[in-house]
Fold each of these.
Amino acid sequence: MNKNNYCIIMAGGVGSRFWPVSRQNHPKQFLDILGMGKSFIRHTYERFLDIIPAENFYVVTNKKYTELVKQHIPELKNEQILSEPLGRNTAPCIAYAAYKVNKLNPDAKMVVAPSDHLVLNESKFREVISEGFDFLDDNNTLLTIGIKPNRPDTGYGYIQIDTTVQIDNFNKVKTFTEKPTLEVAKMFVESGEFFWNSGIFIWKSDEIIKQFINHLPEVDRLFASINDSYNTEEEENAIRQIYPECRNISIDYGIMEKADNVYVRCSEFGWSDIGTWVSIYQHSAKDVNGNAILGDVLTYDTEGCIINMPNGKVAVVQGMKDFIIVDSDNALLICPKNDEQNIRMFVEEVKMKKGPDFI
Amino acid sequence: MNKNNYCIIMAGGVGSRFWPVSRQNHPKQFLDILGMGKSFIRHTYERFLDIIPAENFYVVTNKKYTELVKQHIPELKNEQILSEPLGRNTAPCIAYAAYKVNKLNPDAKMVVAPSDHLVLNESKFREVISEGFDFLDDNNTLLTIGIKPNRPDTGYGYIQIDTTVQIDNFNKVKTFTEKPTLEVAKMFVESGEFFWNSGIFIWKSDEIIKQFINHLPEVDRLFASINDSYNTEEEENAIRQIYPECRNISIDYGIMEKADNVYVRCSEFGWSDIGTWVSIYQHSAKDVNGNAILGDVLTYDTEGCIINMPNGKVAVVQGMKDFIIVDSDNALLICPKNDEQNIRMFVEEVKMKKGPDFI
């Protein structure tokens, strides 16, 4: 394995779309919503283990999840867990990891990946990532992984490729687009030029730092200012000082959409960001009535439902069709699958009613 | 208050119709399903307190509920709680209380009442019961309380009166009938001759014993055989000996349907046996959408539902119409109001799946 290859796992997210199973103090990346026996973050870690040296993994997370990260990946040493004092979106998270890794190894190449995605074909995935690392040797680009869309999903951002500029399996990126309407998404898929934006990136650490200097100079200035402290006892304190001053901005908006050397590796390896209950449903085993059930549930005249019960509890469900039923700790959610976008609003209203710690 | 008047509260029932709120080790009589601030058994006790001397109350219950009875009615002395080693229906329960009370006071009159009913007009109720006690002075009858029906309820047994034999407000009973079909129930209500059987009785202790001798001699023989032990330290042991040998039989079937001196006081005092979730619904306060809600619940596009959540838990419910949603401890029930008769079956199936202690 190449000692210059590093893996940065981003695990600071606090999603509310899986409430009440996903909670503020135990968010999605630490859950096993699909009932596969391992949390998303554990799967993510193991997915890269064959191609990245174990000592080259870094997990960036919110300070409040540091202990959870240790529990799920006990192999990590303390210095492999980068704790953010507060969430500032992906650009600062990546800057932190890039400066730290680059100081350790100026020849570092790093793959950056979210901690809560699903990959079905892991060997194909590793092939793609390895190919990406190799590609960087001759092409100093910002590489992103695009997924060939199999349906006009309106929940994803899309990457348009420049079909005229291709090197091996890699295309130059023409545009990044936000989540489209259904009509636009259909056109995207038909065109063959648009790919889902997986949020997985590969680049050299010194190259991404150069891009921070160009496109997000105020972010660069903060992380550069504490360069002496990386990988020392001062690091945690220094990070705590600069984070509150740092802009909240995504790497897509801050850099990927602005840099002119962005390439995409268009791939197919059974990927989903598992962003909603319905995507959980799509990837779950179902009973004869099309119910995706996790836990002890007796159903009668019930079909097309997602039912998720905690250990030790039984549900008896009669007469439900295409509902989400999730029982977890101090909350129960019952809502039609078609209305799952309401869950964010539900969470806000429960927060107003019961206080922020309830969520 | 008349020192000869006694109150026997029957509290041994283990209903499953309110599962999962009502549990084997915490059944309905100890619950406050309507959210009135007191359990059914506490309400029952207080309902009689104005007309019966406190030392003349006896609660008959299953041994496993003795502690619960003490918690709900701490005023009771130990000797006022009669513990059955196992449930044998109402006839043995009443025989036990009658022999015990009769030995204490051969002039005793006793009202016998279930512990889990609802009475809205309690002063009217007390009037009726007091009138009943007085009636016994001149008429040595078995008195039962009939309720004027306001709808053709198929969940109740009915009492037909003999309109030709009336003394004051009391009619001789012609027949007892089981739960009728809807068509029959409609005829009953229209006729004006049929009343709901409330399961509340008033009689002299020596008279009901005489009826046991006549109609249930084998039950009488058991309870008469331990006459020396009542109100002594031997009582508990003696009861434990005879109960397993005793027949399982209701007072209605064993005596009321057979005796020829049964009278009924037809009454109206806002009574319900609160036997089903739908009867809970009928007697509960409802929100603007007709939902009867107990606990912290946010509803959206939801109407006509009964929602019952435990303390400290929040439910978010969208898109439900006329459902029962009950969350309690280790079980969650979701079923249409119209199918509530299935709950007994659900309980049996959960028992099969999870074992008897789960219920």
Amino acid sequence: MKTNQLTNQSANYIAIMAGGIGSRFWPASTVDRPKQFLDILGIGESLIRTTFKRCLKLVPAERILIVTNKRYKALVLEHLPELPERNVLCEPSMNNTGPCVAYTALRIQSENPKAVFAVLPSDHVILKEEAYVSKLAQAFEFAESRGAIVTLGITPTRPDTGYGYIELDCQCEGGENDPSVGVCKVASFREKPDTQTAEEYVSSGNYLWNAGMFVWSVDTILKAFKTNAPDILNVLCQNKSAFGTDDEQNYIDKVYPKTENISVDYAILERSDNVFTIPSDIGWSDLGTWNSLHDYLDKDDNHTVTLGEQTHLIDTKNSIIRSDSKKVVVIKGLEDYIVVDEENALLIYPKKDEQEIKQVVKSLL
Amino acid sequence: MKTNQLTNQSANYIAIMAGGIGSRFWPASTVDRPKQFLDILGIGESLIRTTFKRCLKLVPAERILIVTNKRYKALVLEHLPELPERNVLCEPSMNNTGPCVAYTALRIQSENPKAVFAVLPSDHVILKEEAYVSKLAQAFEFAESRGAIVTLGITPTRPDTGYGYIELDCQCEGGENDPSVGVCKVASFREKPDTQTAEEYVSSGNYLWNAGMFVWSVDTILKAFKTNAPDILNVLCQNKSAFGTDDEQNYIDKVYPKTENISVDYAILERSDNVFTIPSDIGWSDLGTWNSLHDYLDKDDNHTVTLGEQTHLIDTKNSIIRSDSKKVVVIKGLEDYIVVDEENALLIYPKKDEQEIKQVVKSLL
């Protein structure tokens, strides 16, 4: 039984990717409750809920899909009670974003073959929401009118070595009333650079950060898969009529784990030539690390970020201290530290060594 | 109704003092659950229970009294289920050890006027239990036969400035089969000394640590109160027949708060001349501070004490780390720190500044 009618009218959809297990934010983030489900900014709302509410400014809840791991389905519905249950797409295995996007495209195709959809991360922060909504709306329009693959590229504010970069091919095209104003052709995608290269990228003005935000039509992306990653489609399309039916989950549980583990960046974007980017100054942060959270949040006179309501600091500098609001925390003399106290775990770690945490925790758990 | 018969036979009693609120061990120790009720050594047993079990080697549970603040009665009975409820003596106010010992003496007198009793702290550690039991047995015997006030004096192992000292008056008296072998007359009690004085004390070999462990007969100590602190007795003996009856608590609630707030050391010991001490090498620690706990417990190769079962330390030196056994703790790079994680509070504090903690916490709570 299909619950949505096929239509000849195009419609915009948004797929929010929420399958990550966020191992870098341990112990705040755990496999049982990864980063996207946390109120990591201390604003009283999880990142996924903030993302969802932002998306509602562009499309109704019925056209928002959450793509996540099976084990997080209940958490998704708990955080987003407005979301129809069938809009949670459950991956039975973690096969990276390539198969994930293909599955999403096939589901949306079953509802509306003319749809255009965005793929967005669930756990990033956007400070300039109005600019963001406007850039995304433009991306939808450009993707539909040109049959293009569109990404939002973030105007870099520092030579960060933690992000991939988008190299621009040309000046932005179009005239003032053209939807292509401010849209640039992409020359190439670049992996995370070393410091010197990052500095060159940023000073050249010809590079943007790749924030993992994509917009394309069902038609465009499925054609791109057919050309560049046909095996994924072959596996997923053995019984194409299952998409959008009550049988979909059973079917996906069987075939999805057999798809290649590959990112959509590598499988599609780097191999396509109709890729465009919209330079976007939207106050973006991927909040990928405790350090990025420290950079992002308000600091006290000692350059320390406190998330927690009963924290008493003495001579504690340039640190980030996160705890449950019910917990009294007394700290003296720490400098350049991450302190994260959760119900089941406590982390006290030098900020500069943050990248080690993932390995340490892996060896422990 | 008296539940115990008066008798003409002497009997040994032990009164364990358990009224302290242990503010120095915050956040492990709180007013709701002070140090004596904690398994502060991580051995699966609270300090008061260890103390109680040690005392059972000298007297039966029926002759062990716990003297504590009213609010801890339920906790005492929870930790010592073998203890008759009437053996918990409840102070309605904190008036220091002077009135506390007088009340205890009057209660024991109501059961057995010929009794000899020891007064012992509830929250100290004794490593050499056999030596301890033997020294206490000797103290009971000497106190009864000589009508003396007897203390156990701890052979000092370092010039500690945190303890009071007992100055010896003479060489130890008696022949080999005399109960007074190894018993010394006390010349004076000395307050906590400065470092130089402490060094002189220890090198002279003529001083012991005062560990607050006393033995005396009911008769001896009540006479000493009559001579040296008669006001306390006057207040408590307005209706002496209340002791040992169902009316005792009501009576004590009324009169006890009117007694002078004074230590038994100051009220009695420093003013008496029949005071003796038994030099005791019993592996004693008062565990008065996190630092003393650090000194006392087994350390790893980095001189760090860990209390907790899932603690993972990297480059962490000369520290003490205490946490719940269910909690995963990951720490890197701390040196000379106290880390104590409790359900409601987290402390991360330099060891050298430990004496500040009490004030910091006071200002917070």
